[in-house]
Design brief:
325 residues, alpha+beta, Rossmann fold, D-amino Acid Aminotransferase, Chain A, domain 1, Dna Ligase, domain 1, 3 domains, 6-stranded antiparallel β-sheet, 4-stranded antiparallel β-sheet, 11 helices, 13 strands, 21% strand, globular
Length: 325
């Protein structure tokens, strides 16, 4: 099969994307596919249009690649592609919008407020504290890999919250402030390539002994974090698996996703943080690790994904209708 793997782009996560792409290319080549790497730049559409590709594997993270923009271009080009469609990609990438959909579907989310850039950071900080309480998390609304995320205890002054808002606005037009949910950091991967529906892979607990939480450095620096897969969650295992599947379905994801949680001592304290429609595929990434635990090698995983995308084909086109005379 002739596969284009798209990487990079104008995103803070471009280098992560290129690392993911290298692994995907290696895996697909091991499975005897003909693979070409393409940078997500202004020339990519023409290269995709003329490249004779059977399917596209977006290995992109962040703006333009993961938010539905690339997916929209692939729809115009009538090219089958791995992963969620335009709507699900855009929803999942926007934490403010995805929270609304997830909550409506019954998925547990932390209480939060969104603040647009341009307002007074101090007034926004004071409002967030008044509504949400003392301990909060500040994050850009449409960013990943924990870039721009700040966790602030109740003892932190409002000035620190204001500075965190300004840092988030430097990356995004909207900053999200949520109640600081405490517990174990857990992620659950979903593989959705068969007719039987989504398959939830074993949950993974993430421990970051050198960092306050699962930061950008903890995610991608070798040996910076410890992953326990399957996680030892007892009776909460089924609850988390069900919540991951529900979140995947609520946003309309397809092929694959990874749902991140904070897990307290009971089902009532479980919080969905976000849904990743294009999970990392680097050497330290969680999705390939969960697949391996499930008995699916990385070359087999990537092959299943491209074969499923090719089988699905481009989005259906309906013939135009003449205007009534």
């Amino acid at each position: 099969m002739r596969v284009a793997v798209v990487e990079g782009g104008p995103s803070s996560e471009a280098e992560v994307s290129r690392a993911s792409a290298r692994n995907v290319v290696r895996a697909l080549e091991q499975a005897s596919h003909d693979v070409t790497r393409l940078e997500l730049d202004p020339t990519v559409c023409e290269r995709l249009r003329t490249g004779g590709f059977d399917v596209v594997f977006p290995a992109v993270h962040g703006a333009v690649g993961e938010d539905g923009s690339l997916q929209g271009a692939l729809e115009l080009l009538c090219l089958p592609y791995v992963g969620s469609d335009v709507l699900a990609s855009a929803l999942a990438m926007n934490k403010v919008r995805s929270r609304v959909v997830l909550a409506a579907a019954g998925c547990p989310v932390a209480a939060g407020l969104a603040f647009e850039r341009g307002g007074s950071s101090m007034r926004c900080a004071e409002k967030a504290r008044a509504v949400l309480g003392g301990a909060v998390v500040v994050k850009p609304a449409s960013s990943g890999s924990a870039i721009g995320v700040a966790r602030l205890e109740a003892t932190a002054p409002d000035e620190d919250v204001a500075r965190a808002l300004e840092a988030a606005w430097a990356l995004d037009d909207v900053a999200l402030v949520e109640v600081f949910a405490r517990g174990r950091e857990v992620t659950c991967s979903v593989l959705d390539v068969g007719e039987s529906g989504p398959r939830v892979l074993a949950a993974t607990e993430i421990i970051s002994p050198h960092d306050a939480f699962y930061t950008y450095e903890a995610r991608y620096a070798p040996n910076r974090s410890v992953h326990h897969c399957p996680a030892s969650l007892g009776d909460l295992t089924r609850v988390i698996h069900d919540a991951a599947c529900a979140a995947h379905k609520a946003l309309g994801c397809r092929d694959l996703s990874r749902v991140d949680f904070i897990v307290g001592d009971s089902a009532e304290t479980l919080v969905v943080l976000e849904v990743n429609t294009i999970p990392g595929m680097t050497e330290t990434s969680l999705y390939p690790e969960a697949a391996r635990v499930a008995g699916v090698s990385f070359p087999e995983l990537c092959t299943r994904l491209v074969e499923n995308a090719r089988r699905r084909g481009p989005r259906r086109r309906n013939p135009g209708r003449a205007l009534p005379s």
